[in-house]
Design a protein that fits this description.
There is one protein chain. This protein is α/β, with parallel strands linked by helices. Helix content is 45%, strand content 13%. Strands 1, 2, 3, 4, 8, 12 and 13 form a seven-stranded parallel β-sheet that branches. Strands 6-5-7-9 form a four-stranded antiparallel β-sheet, with no helix packed on it. A three-stranded mixed β-sheet has the order 15-14-16. Helix 1 links the parallel strand 2 and strand 3. Helix 14 packs antiparallel against helix 15 and helix 14 runs parallel beside helix 17. The longest helix has 31 residues. The radius of gyration is 27 Å and the shape is elongated. The chain binds 5'-O-[(L-methionyl)-sulphamoyl]adenosine.
């Protein structure tokens, strides 16, 4: 497709692209190695980003790292490094992880980036000027591990705090607070009036339940620099750094600000960078997050945005948590699924397939090595792989790889798979989309068994029938290749190559039946998912 360059003489505003489909993931804490949970969220976002691009949207996909706070400072000290040097080392590891997952993110934010710090400070300065903060002493309990203040309500019946809080210390200190008390009702009204705002609906109900049954405490947004200095300095008081969650949430607008998004720049009072072409991003279309960080995203973040005069994101898409063998993954028990090791053994597409097919976005999931191997064998090797391999091998063997005349026997099945898949993709229903695609895989494998082309090939009187069957199968392989692009990009490229088509991505609309040209010659059939006969240990 030709890219139309707009003349440079047009006024700046006319050179703006239309608003992008803007989606984000949570930004991961750098104090550790990436695991299955982090990979899962990033793959969800990547599939949605790829799908929207192939549906014709201009997309901006953001992910990145959350680098400030006590946990990072302590981890750096424990390794005898400066926090910045420690973060730089880990950022390289996380960057390689994103590449290993073949994420198609358009930017990668680090909260230690100058552009991010500038936006956080600009927002703090504005909210301070407008009277959203006040200073007050605090005496109470503090969990360093969770970077959060605890109250008497958080104590268990025996008076102790849950071990998940780690060491709880008693603190007395002055801090700045963000006034939240008057913000509760409009947020309840907004969530009730916008049922799509938080998905799935049971997470929305959870947030509504919380807001209706509790009085919001004002949010402490600073930490005294004397206690914690690994944070963004508060612009109006040198004695403080910014609370890590206030800092982290702002990443969703600091990158738009750096990219010249006019609404965000106006809201935080930053000047536009006259140089670059501005990109229109805000409001975000999707924030993809795990269930544990619901309150930060569904309560604090909307309130921060409203205070800044910014529109709220269109949707918070909340996924569940993975366990391994029915147990929480933890470094101490050693039952952490290492995505890198799984990808090295089984391939990236197998990993992407399993996490999306096994677990719908919402509930919690359970990883088992046997479950993984089972899906690989049944759905990838015996299902998709076998279909493509036998279809194209027969076309090669019986027709020298030359595509016969069009025949529409599987057109309705393929059309249904396409319509359903696209509907699911537009609604971010990734598991549903894969189920729809696999209905076509199953149907086509049945079609091979029912039509028995290997028998037809033995009877010259059946040559025309064999042509029909071979066209239907090859065309179904092409349709599958198109529909699978967002999920299994490497596999789609291989299917295209084996069909003799360019392996570049194509719009999802080209899955419409009849794209394969009669008379074209296909490429070499190669197994997509080699069978692994040894059960995985
Ligand atoms: N830094 C914060 C997020 C700030 S967003 C402005 C944070 N980081 S995290 O590294 O702890 O988690 C990052 C994401 O990974 C979260 O959305 C979290 O829910 C997700 N997961 C972490 N462990 C997970 C599983 N075991 N399963 C699925 N997702 C999980 O929170």
């Amino acid at each position: 497709m030709a890219v139309v360059e707009l003349p440079a003489s047009l006024p700046h505003s006319a050179r703006h692209m239309s608003k992008r489909f803007y989606l984000t993931t949570a930004i991961d804490y750098v104090n550790g190695q990436p695991h299955l949970g982090h990979a899962y969220e990033k793959i969800i976002a990547d599939v949605i980003a790829r799908a929207h691009r192939l549906l014709g949207d201009e997309v901006f996909f953001l992910t990145g790292l959350d680098e400030h706070g006590q946990k990072v400072q302590q981890a750096a000290i424990a390794e005898g490094k400066s926090p910045q040097a420690y973060c730089d080392e880990l950022a390289a590891i996380w960057g390689r992880f994103a590449a290993k997952l073949q994420l198609t993110n358009d930017d990668f934010v680090r909260t230690t980036d100058a552009r991010h710090k500038a936006a956080v400070q600009a927002l703090l300065a504005r909210l301070h000027r407008e009277g959203h903060f006040y200073q007050s002493p605090y005496r109470g309990f503090y969990s360093q591990k969770e970077e959060t203040f605890l109250t008497e309500k958080d104590r268990r019946p025996d008076g102790t705090f849950d071990p998940s809080y780690g060491d709880v210390v008693e603190l007395v200190e002055e801090n700045y607070y963000f006034k939240l008390k008057d913000q509760q009702q409009w947020l309840i009204d907004y969530i009730e009036a916008n049922p799509e705002f938080i998905a799935p609906s049971y997470r929305r109900n959870e947030v509504l339940g919380f807001l209706k049954n509790n009085t919001l405490e004002d949010l402490c947004i600073t930490r005294p620099a004397a206690r914690l200095n690994w944070g963004i300095p508060v612009p109006f008081d040198a004695g403080y750094v910014t609370y890590v969650w206030f800092d982290a949430l702002v990443n969703y607008i600091s990158v738009p600000a750096a990219r010249g998004d006019a609404a965000v720049l106006a809201a935080i009072g930053q000047a536009a960078d006259a140089g670059g072409a501005a990109v229109e991003l805000w409001p975000a279309d999707l924030h993809i997050i795990g269930k544990d960080i619901l309150k930060f995203h569904c309560v604090y973040w909307p309130i921060m945005l409203k205070a800044a005069g910014l529109a709220l994101p269109r949707q918070l898409l909340v996924h569940g948590w993975w366990q391994k063998d029915g147990v929480k993954m933890s470094k101490t028990t050693g039952n952490v699924v290492d995505p890198g090791a799984v990808i090295d053994e089984w391939g990236l597409d197998a990993f992407r397939f399993y996490v999306l097919r096994e677990l719908d976005i919402g509930p919690d999931g359970n990883w088992t090595d046997a479950g993984f191997a089972g899906r690989y064998q049944a759905e990838l090797a015996n299902g998709l792989g076998n279909l493509v391999n036998r279809s194209l091998s027969m076309l090669k063997r019986y027709r020298n790889g030359v595509v016969p005349a069009r025949s529409d026997e599987l057109a309705a099945d393929a059309g249904r798979a396409m319509t359903e898949t696209l509907t699911h993709l537009r609604a971010s229903e990734l598991q549903g989309a894969l189920v729809s695609v696999w209905q076509l895989v199953t149907r086509a494998n049945q079609y091979v068994d029912q039509t028995a082309p290997f028998k037809l090939a033995k009877d010259p009187a059946q040559a025309a029938r064999l042509d029909e069957v071979l066209y239907n199968l090859a065309e179904t392989c092409r349709v599958l290749g198109v529909l699978l692009q967002p999920f299994l990009p490497g596999t789609s490229a291989k299917i295209f190559r084996q069909l003799g088509l360019p392996d570049a991505t194509v719009p999802l609309s080209t899955a419409a039946w009849g794209g394969l040209r009669a008379g074209a010659t296909i490429g070499e059939p190669v197994a997509l998912f080699p069978r692994k006969d040894q059960p995985k240990k």
